[in-house]
Amino acid sequence: MGLLACSCSASTPSSTTPAHSVQPSFEVRPVLCWAPAFASQPGEINGSPAGRPSCSQGYQLTATNLGIKPDPSNAEGYDSNASVAPDPTLASYPTTAHGADEPLNTVILPAWPPAANPPNVRFVLGPAALTATSVQGVEVLNQSGQWMVNVTLTPSGAASWDALASTHFHTFLAVVVNGLVVSAAITEPVQSSFTSYGGQVEISGGFSEDQAKALAVQI
Question: Is this prediction's pTM over 0.90?
Answer without folding.
Answer: no
